[in-house]
Amino acid sequence: MNKLNENELEKKIREGYNKSRLLRGFVERGYKNKIRWKKGKNTNANWTKMTKRVFEEIGEEKEFKIVETDKEKKNKEFMALDQVWFNKEKDDVAVLALETENRAKFKEIVKDEFRKLLNFKSDYKILIWYNYDDDDEGKFLDEFQKKVNVHPKVLKNEVFFIIKLWRNEKGIGLTICKLKKHEKRKDVKQWLVYDMYKRKAKAKELKNEIEA
Fold it and tell me: What's the predicted TM-score (pTM) here?
């Protein structure tokens, strides 16, 4: 039966987003470094498609059976989740459930996307969202943790990945935090996917080489 270690999954997620290198095409710098989705084809909806593709590639590499709610307009309301992975050898066993939301406020996330993950049975539950109130990140994570701790259907061996998209003066990146039932939350890990300073320096270096 397919197996996936949580640290391996975290590594694959980071690699997947780093490999995509498409973040700059989706977001603009907004007020106080808040994210503003670009108009045109690179919308928040297409960001969701790209995000799902990152996970689809991980699942395919690990040989899981993948079901998506909107793929070829089939399984439109499959457990109302964006993507689910199953073991190929035993396809009634869900391994991972993915929910992504880029516009809703925290209260809406808790009542909808996170509730779905709490009630769905799988080893890994992935929530990807954009936190509009960065100053309250710790408070929001505490609330997610509380929901995990008190929910009767959540098992101790289930792992929740909370992934947040952000932008600041340095560039565009993501944070990742893992939650487990009745375990102390570890520090949030943050990394740049698109480093504006490095990109600008590279562009300047290339321009100088051309002009030399």
Answer: 0.81
